[in-house]
């Protein structure tokens, strides 16, 4: 089982950051790597079990299922149903925690998955350094540091 | 039931912060409110269930019991057994997490407790400011002082 953990500090209150990232269909509005997204079967994007079908800027298409969403604990958990990445049993969680000292946000993005051993380092680097850190860098820019 | 959360960012890796916080009997070495402290029955301070018996600088005598300690999660929990102030069912949790983007530490310190009617605000202020916020400042100063010493060496 491979694990990815990336965390960052966003210079805004956690409820504001949560408003930005809560929408399971909203990746294109804040993540620079995502070109377009839709929720299958016309379901609302906060219905647990809904599936997002989205396309990266490099053309890859990924389908992910919403497993958990909490407006109280500010986290979102999802799994990959279909992707060209070569991962299995992929489950990821994006979680926000308030930093009371300065009204900032501690953001954590974790993933666990299985893959062939020779591709693990590359996948961990692409997912952690590319997708997750890329998302945090974008949020830091959008929220001014 | 009152729930209190305080959190901050310390400009040092989690291992350095954890090295200071992990010792359940070490708070008299770094927390400005704490006078002398000892673990009862000669037990080790990382034995879950051990009790620290300590005095605040204002003379108050307290006993707290270690409920959880995890080197993997860099977290611990404890509860108050005896205190002269009206803090009832006080359970606190300390958790560190790495900020991978910058090699810093996220430190979360939270608790729940009840108290006498009318004293909620003062108890929350005392715990939040005199204990938690003051602890953050003390650890931050201590780590920046030791970083300064290393820089000169």
Number of domains as seen in the coordinates of chain A: 1
The helix-and-strand class of chain B reads alpha+beta
The proportion of residues forming helix of chain B, as a percent range, comes to 25-40%
User: What is the correct CATH architecture of chain B?
Assistant: 2-Layer Sandwich
The appropriate CATH architecture of chain A is 2-Layer Sandwich
Q: Percent range for helical residues of chain A?
A: 10-25%
Strand content of chain B: 35-45%
Biggest interface found: A-B, 16 and 16 residues
Q: What is the typical, i.e. mean, pLDDT of chain B?
A: 95
Ends distance of chain A: 34 Å
Strand line-up across the major sheet of chain B: 1-7-6-5-4-3-2
Global shape of chain B: globular
Strand order of the largest sheet of chain A: 1-7-6-5-4-3-2
Q: Note poorly predicted spans of chain A.
A: none
CATH superfamily of chain B: START domain
- CATH class group of chain B: Alpha Beta
CATH class wording of chain A: Alpha Beta
CATH fold assignment of chain A: Alpha-D-Glucose-1,6-Bisphosphate, Chain A, domain 4
Helices and strands of chain A: which structural class? alpha+beta
C-alpha termini separation of chain B: 50 Å
Describe this structure as you would to a colleague.
By secondary structure, chain A is α+β, with helices and mostly antiparallel strands. Chain A has one domain (2-142): START domain (Alpha-D-Glucose-1,6-Bisphosphate, Chain A, domain 4). Chain A has helices at residues 14-21, 27-30, 120-142; strands spanning 2-10, 34-39, 51-56, 61-70, 75-82, 88-99, 104-114. A seven-stranded antiparallel β-sheet of chain A has the order 1-7-6-5-4-3-2. In chain A, strand 5 and strand 6 (88-99) form a beta hairpin. Chain A is globular. The termini of chain A are far apart. With 153 residues, chain B is α+β, with helices and mostly antiparallel strands. Chain B has one domain (2-148): START domain (Alpha-D-Glucose-1,6-Bisphosphate, Chain A, domain 4, 2-Layer Sandwich). Helices cover 29% and strands 41% of the residues of chain B. A seven-stranded antiparallel β-sheet of chain B has the order 1-7-6-5-4-3-2. The model of chain B has no long low-confidence stretch (mean pLDDT 95).
